Amino acid sequence: QVQVVESGGGLVQPGGSLRLSCVFYGSIFSLYIMGWYRQAPGKQRELVARVTDGSGTSYADSMKGRFTISRDHANKMVYLQMNNLKPEDTAVYYCNAVHVRDGNEYWGQGTQVTVSE
């Protein structure tokens, strides 16, 4: 059974930085595309960034240049480095794992990021 658990959220001032972490439990990490999503109050969940087994990355346009996703295969971790944070980045951030063959998908419980003075 696959489980992903996020950590690292918190309160940060505009222009600040945070690094989110996601640990992957169970199964074969390399068979999963890992991603970060976020959901702000009253809005739909949206893709932030995604990283493949080969470390190919993709980002939502509004995050390009500010956010960096990476994965550590040895420790089954995925990170999201967020720089120059803005109030509109305030949301619950979720880690996501999708199996490359059967499409099975797993979500973490989320970690709150609040960007405010």
What are the SSEs and their pairings?
Layout: E1 3-7, E2 10-12, E3 18-25, E4 32-39, E5 46-51, E6 57-59, E7 67-72, E8 77-82, E9 91-99, E10 105-107, E11 111-115
Parallel strand pairs: 2-11
Antiparallel strand pairs: 1-3, 3-8, 4-5, 4-9, 5-6, 7-8, 9-10, 9-11
Detailed description of the structure:
- The radius of gyration is 14 Å and the shape is globular.
- Strand 5 and strand 6 (57-59) form a beta hairpin.
- Strands 2, 4, 5, 6, 9, 10 and 11 form a seven-stranded mixed beta sheet that branches. Strands 1-3-8-7 form a four-stranded antiparallel beta sheet, with no helix packed on it.
- With 117 residues, it is mostly beta strands.
- The mean pLDDT is 96.
- The relative contact order is 0.32.
- The protein is built from no helices and eleven strands.
Condensed summary:
The protein has 117 residues and is mainly beta. The chain has strands at residues 3-7, 10-12, 18-25, 32-39, 46-51, 57-59, 67-72, 77-82, 91-99, 105-107, 111-115.
Report the count of strand segments. Answer: 11
Span from first to last CA? 41 Å
Instruction: Characterize the overall form.
Output: globular
User: What is the subunit organization of this protein?
Assistant: single chain
What Rg do the Cα atoms give? 14 Å
Query: What's the overall average pLDDT, rounded?
Result: 96
